[in-house]
Specification:
This protein is α/β, with parallel strands linked by helices and 229 residues long. Helices cover 22% and strands 23% of the residues. The chain has one domain: DHBP synthase, CATH 3.90.870. A hairpin with a 5-residue loop joins β6 and β7. α1 packs across α4. It is globular and about 50 Å long.
């Protein structure tokens, strides 16, 4: 194990009783951490640490026009992120959260630019999810309830599915890696857009579109971001 701030990432075992608190403290201090989720491993940064979010982009070589999704500790945190949660989105949240469904909803204007996008209708949006992973939600709760999180990989490469894969990223590895074992689903989340009465499946992955269609009526179009958590 290496000290935080050294050349190699600090590796912590999620079974260590102090690990979650140490990772949360590092995130609040402006470090970038890799955390396990139900889908893939994610690179996380605090929403109020601009330099950490900028470093996250640099680690991944991620195009700046691609917004970073936000992971929440629980659905109640959504009111801190979303300007509006349409009825269709609420139905999907009730059915699929916590779980592998990312929902793009209208965003509060105070959010960092890096986690927001403008939809075709001109609405400022944010992509949000509550992961079905105890360790991930513990870190999120200890770090303030919400983090900017995107897949642990170089942009365009497959996402890391375990802590060792994160360590093998070399110069793209973060400051600290929390080892919570292999990602259970090994697939990225499905992404839907929910603005007004419109529900559109932007990317079908861990959750089939057919399951979403059983809850709400959906349309379909492609989403350019291939490896979000």
């Amino acid at each position: 194990m290496t000290a935080l701030g050294a050349e190699a990432p600090l590796l912590l075992d999620a079974d260590d009783p102090s690990a979650v608190a140490r990772v949360a403290a590092a995130l609040r201090s402006g470090h970038v951490a890799a955390i396990p989720t139900d889908t893939v491993y994610g690179l996380a940064a605090a929403l109020d640490r601009p330099h950490a979010i900028a470093r996250l982009y640099g680690l991944k070589s991620r195009p700046r026009e691609k917004a970073i999704p936000v992971l929440l500790a629980e659905a109640a945190e959504l009111e801190k992120i979303a300007a509006d949660v349409p009825p269709g989105a609420r139905a999907l949240i009730e059915r699929f959260w916590p779980g592998a469904l990312t929902i793009v909803v209208p965003a509060l204007p105070a959010l960092p630019d890096e986690v927001t996008s403008v939809a075709a209708a001109g609405v400022l949006t944010v992509a949000v999810r509550v992961p079905d992973h105890r360790v991930a939600r513990d870190v999120l709760a200890a770090a303030g309830g919400a983090l900017a999180v995107t897949s642990a990989n170089r942009s365009g490469d497959p996402p890391a599915l375990d802590a060792q894969a994160v360590l093998r990223l070399g110069n793209a590895a973060p400051d600290i890696v929390l080892d919570g074992g292999p990602a259970p689903l090994r697939h990225a989340s499905t992404v839907v857009l929910a603005i007004g009465d419109e529900i559109v499946v932007l990317r079908e992955d861990a959750i089939p579109a057919s399951r979403i269609a059983k809850v709400v009526q959906v349309g379909s179009e492609s989403w350019p971001e291939a490896h979000a958590v």
